[in-house]
Specification:
Keywords: Cell membrane, Glycoprotein, Leucine-rich repeat, Membrane, Receptor, Repeat, Signal, Transmembrane, Transmembrane helix. The chain is α/β, with parallel strands linked by helices and about 475 residues long. About 20% of the residues lie in helices and about 20% in strands. It is elongated. It binds 2-acetamido-2-deoxy-beta-D-glucopyranose (4 copies). The site of one 2-acetamido-2-deoxy-beta-D-glucopyranose has 4 residues, from loops.
Length: about 475
Amino acid sequence: MAAPPSPSSRALATAPCLLLLLLLSLHAAGPAAAAMDPAEREALLRVMEAVSSDRDWREAAGDDPCSSPWPGLECKPAPGGSGVGAGAAARMHVARLDFGVPPNPTCKDTATFPVGAFALPELRALFLVECFKNPDAIAAFTLPPPANLSSSRLQQLSVRSNPSLSGTLPPQLASIGSLQVLTVSQNALVRGEVPRGLGALKSLVHLDLSYNSLTGTIPSRLGELRGLVGLDLSYNSFSGPIPSRLGELTQLQKLDLSSNNLTGGVPGTFTRLKSLTFLALGNNGLRGRLPSGLSELRDLQYLIMENNPMGVPLPAELGNIARLQELRLANSGLSGSIPETFGLLSSLTTLSLENNNLTGRIPAGLSRLKRMYHLNLSKNGLDGVVPFDGAFLRQLGRNLDLSGNPGLCVADRAVVPDVGVGVCSAGDVARESSAAAESSVVGRVVRGEVARGRWPAALIRPAAVALCCCLLL
Ligand SMILES: *[C@@H]1O[C@H](CO)[C@@H](O)[C@H](O)[C@H]1NC(C)=O
Ligand SMILES: *[C@@H]1O[C@H](CO)[C@@H](O)[C@H](O)[C@H]1NC(C)=O
Ligand SMILES: *[C@@H]1O[C@H](CO)[C@@H](O)[C@H](O)[C@H]1NC(C)=O
Ligand SMILES: *[C@@H]1O[C@H](CO)[C@@H](O)[C@H](O)[C@H]1NC(C)=O
């Protein structure tokens, strides 16, 4: 919406040529013409003064702070004020404020949470990063009353890495209906429960509440955030079960609930999260079987679930999640054997199954996984001859760990780096020789096929890291 035209611009609108000339001169001369609404300017200066003492903000602002904005201040004309007729009237407004990390304004020792920022009529994004850091002046996380927020156009609120910010998540967050990205992360003192009302933020695309001290259960109303693409609640103290309604978040690509105190099982509804690429549930108190149908998560690349007392056999179905790159299930009370189906996971780079109760042979198919980079099977009850050839052992190098499996042995001392396994006796080798010969033939055939279409390993890891970074954003 455009600001009301000033009297002078209304007169000019009847003379388009003059208007054009005026616009051109505005562009060159800047400050004099489209000065910010004085009330908005005053609101901005009060926010600046509440947070930062880097400069004399009134002096820096002049009549129109948007004519030469400092780093951390972004101005935009109000949307909808376009067209030549409205051009002269379109005032600039504060659209984004960044505080904390230079070149943005740094926060003073006595900075308070800038509630006044929510009165800026066109503010779309507010960032407070590494802002509240003074251990002797704990700042309170506060927001204006709901009535003051209902007309807010804020789309992104980011409150990150503020060790001296304290309080609970203000329930008024639920009144900022325009929010698309809400990040309240790495504020160790922010505690209490997640306001149930957050389920009303229907425009939310990303919700990141990681690394705080939040408690209570995960509100099942979060299942109403149907547009959510990323949900990160990791590294808090959430307890109780994972709400099955999270299975309604069918747009979700990244779900991280790791490092909490969650109990119960993985909800069966998770098989509906068909867009998931990253699922992390590690370091909780989760138990029992994974829902059958997980292999329907065709895009899942990361399944990270270590340190849960699952106490079940390692499910063969995991071998059917074709795109898996990382499978982490260490220290999860898993029993049974390593399924042969794991040899189908041709994108796998990391398989971490250490410290479980796995028994039986290592499937020879694992050595056909040409992208495998990290394989940890240590501290289990695996036995028999290790079915890996020299090429596979060299591919993994020090990232292979088979130690702590007393029944395992390797057939050939020459090709063995330090994987924590002894050399087999003649008896072991004789018993296994026919099977080993068979697998090495298969291995050669598959290697030939894979080599033709193979990515250089040097490219795969940066690509995986880049993907990870995108997901985190
Ligand atoms: C809320 O709005 C009222 C009325 O516009 C105003 O007087 C008050 O200062 C506002 N409160 C905050 C914290 O912005
Ligand atoms: C998890 O719960 C247990 C028992 O209720 C408690 O002792 C422990 O501190 C909790 N852990 C976290 C990270 O909150
Ligand atoms: C393996 O199983 C035994 C008993 O069956 C149990 O005592 C032990 O804790 C289990 N180990 C792990 C790592 O789950
Ligand atoms: C394998 O896991 C164990 C923990 O059980 C750890 O100590 C070891 O460093 C890991 N090995 C590799 C190669 O990552």
